[in-house]
Write a structure and sequence with these properties.
2 domains; seven-stranded mixed beta sheet; Aspartate Aminotransferase, domain 1; Aspartate Aminotransferase, domain 2
């Protein structure tokens, strides 16, 4: 079997991740922050060490600015619904995942004004177009760092500078870059950073989080027990407790912490170099097949390891089924929960076949995939 659906969930997970989760369940399995006994203290230490690792990876000054959620979708909903108010104006791009678009469309119905800036057919936003969209009521720019459809990397640092210039907040959806591409919250002037734990951070499903810059006020989505200030009936107003009511996914966070430490040990630059090489081989191999159309930038340095393509006179669903059924190649087909992105690149409503590489894929696997696509394209 060849697994090339890492943009959805990375596979396999490092042994360290499985080990950390198993160890938590067998040796600890206690709640963090709720008791003073040794197992509860150990659980709290494991959670804090995961915050520390993520803060190190994203260059966040204080680990307590990392808030754990179930996934990037929950993080994005928390940030957008907790920050924007009726009458506010927000700017986004035409390459966004529904995790951004659906909350924004919901908020639009509640009185938020929305501008969706059209990207190029290669999925890149022009900072100049963003600048032209800024109004007096603009409060936030929200942007994915890299497309989950064609892997296009947005000029996030330029958008961050633009946000600072106009006194706006900048929110970055790093679901496709965290763990696979350098993400520096300070250098990029990111105020709010949403990330997924189960993709390139190599953690288990059900993990994700949000970095919130100090002095950024976001209303929590929920209130409840935090283990802190239990004498009060009102939600704590300090991070991360303000946003972490209820028992968290403790074994998942233990696994996520191990995944992030694995990424740090391997080195982002090393991971990035390998994925650039594999991505370029896939692009070049697919582009050499006359009946195959590859979407997005052809230089792998300008994208993460996500490649979308179509085969002439064959639906994406048929191509994906044949790759799975005949060659045991796992990929994803369709619209990838990003209809506006597919409209931008001209593949709506059928979508594309998407291959997404990860740290554990190999050149031999890439060669076999290219051969398989060539075979099904000719039959």
């Amino acid at each position: 079997m060849i697994y090339l659906d890492n943009a959805a969930t990375s596979r396999p997970k490092p042994p360290e991740v499985i080990g950390a989760m198993t160890s938590f369940m067998t040796d600890v399995c206690a709640n963090s922050g709720r008791s003073a006994h040794r197992l509860a203290v150990q659980a709290s230490r494991i959670i804090y060490e995961a915050r520390e690792a993520i803060a190190e990876l994203f260059n966040v000054p204080d680990p307590l600015q990392i808030v754990f959620t179930l996934n990037a979708t929950e993080s994005i909903n928390l940030a957008l619904k907790g920050f924007l108010k009726s009458g506010d104006h927000v700017i986004t791009s035409s390459m966004e995942h529904n995790s951004v678009m659906r909350p924004l469309r919901f908020l639009e119905q509640q009185g938020i004004e929305l501008t969706m800036v059209k990207c190029s057919s290669n999925g890149i936003i022009d900072p100049g177009d963003v600048k032209k969209s800024i109004r007096k009521k603009t409060k936030l720019i929200v942007l994915n760092h890299a497309s989950n459809v064609i892997g296009s990397i947005q000029p996030a640092e330029e958008i961050g500078l633009l946000s600072r210039e106009y006194g706006l907040l900048f929110m970055l959806d790093a679901a496709q870059t965290a763990g696979a591409y350098p993400v520096d919250a300070q250098r990029m002037n990111v105020d709010i950073l949403a990330f997924s734990g189960h993709k390139s951070l190599l953690g288990p499903p059900g993990t994700g989080g949000l970095y919130i810059r100090q002095d950024v006020d976001i209303i929590p989505l929920k209130q409840g027990g935090t283990g802190s200030r239990s004498e009060e009936e009102y939600q704590p107003d300090f991070l991360p407790d303000k946003y972490e009511s209820g028992t968290p996914n403790l074994p998942g966070i233990a696994g996520l912490g191990a995944g992030v430490r694995f990424v740090i040990q391997e080195g982002i630059e090393s991971i990035r170099k390998k994925e650039i090489e594999l991505t370029q081989e896939i692009i070049d191999g697919l582009a050499s097949i006359p009946v195959v159309e590859v979407y997005g930038e052809f230089e792998s340095e300008k994208r993460v390891g996500v490649i979308s393509f179509n085969i002439e006179s064959m639906s994406p669903s048929e191509a994906g089924f044949r790759l799975d059924d005949e060659y045991e190649i796992m990929c994803r087909v369709g619209l990838h929960c990003a209809p506006v992105a597919h409209k931008t690149i001209g593949t709506f409503p059928d979508g594309t076949v998407r291959l997404s590489v990860g740290i554990f894929n190999t050149k031999d696997e890439v060669d076999m995939v290219i051969g398989a696509v060539k075979d099904i394209s000719l039959t």
